[in-house]
Design brief:
By secondary structure, the protein is of the alpha+beta class. The chain contains two helices and six strands, in the order H-E-E-H-E-E-E-E. The chain has a six-stranded antiparallel β-sheet, covered by helices on one side.
C-alpha cells in the first residue's frame, strides 16, 4: 500500500466512524423521545410537563394529562402498559398505581395518580430512572 491508499483508507474509515456515531446518536434520541411519550394515554391532552436531569445518574419526567375516557379504561391502560399491578393507595376520587423495577444497570420508578374530576380524568405520571443504583 502506498501513501495515497493509506490516506483514502483513513478518510473513508473516519467518515464511516462519524456516520456510525451520528446514526447511533440519532437512534438514542428517537428512543429517548419514544420512551418519554410512552406515558401519554391515547387521545389525552397534555396539561403540564416537568423534567429534571441530573445526568449521568438520574432523570425524572413528570407529566399531567387529561382525558374524557372512563376511569376504568385509564386505570387498566396504565396498569397493563407499565405492568403496575393493583392500586397501592386511594384517596377520595384518586387512585395511585406505582412500581419500582430494578434492572442490571438502572432502576425505574413509575407512579400514576389517576383522579376523577367530574367529566374528566386527570393523570399525574411520574417516571424516575436512576443509573447504577
Amino acid at each position: 500500500m502506498n501513501t495515497n491508499d493509506n490516506n483514502r483508507l483513513l478518510i473513508w474509515g473516519s467518515l464511516f466512524g462519524l456516520g456510525m456515531m451520528i446514526l447511533c446518536g440519532t437512534a438514542m434520541l428517537v428512543a429517548w423521545n419514544l420512551d418519554k411519550e410512552a406515558a401519554r394515554y391515547p387521545g389525552s391532552r397534555e396539561i403540564a410537563e416537568h423534567t429534571h436531569y441530573a445526568l449521568p445518574k438520574l432523570y425524572r419526567w413528570d407529566h399531567t394529562y387529561a382525558t374524557n375516557a372512563a376511569i376504568n379504561d385509564v386505570y387498566q391502560w396504565y396498569s397493563i402498559t407499565f405492568d403496575l399491578g393493583p392500586e397501592s393507595q386511594a384517596n377520595g376520587g384518586c387512585s395511585l398505581v406505582e412500581d419500582l423495577k430494578s434492572h442490571l444497570f438502572f432502576q425505574r420508578y413509575i407512579g400514576v395518580l389517576i383522579c376523577e374530576t367530574g367529566d374528566e380524568r386527570l393523570m399525574f405520571v411520574t417516571r424516575s430512572t436512576t443509573f447504577f443504583p
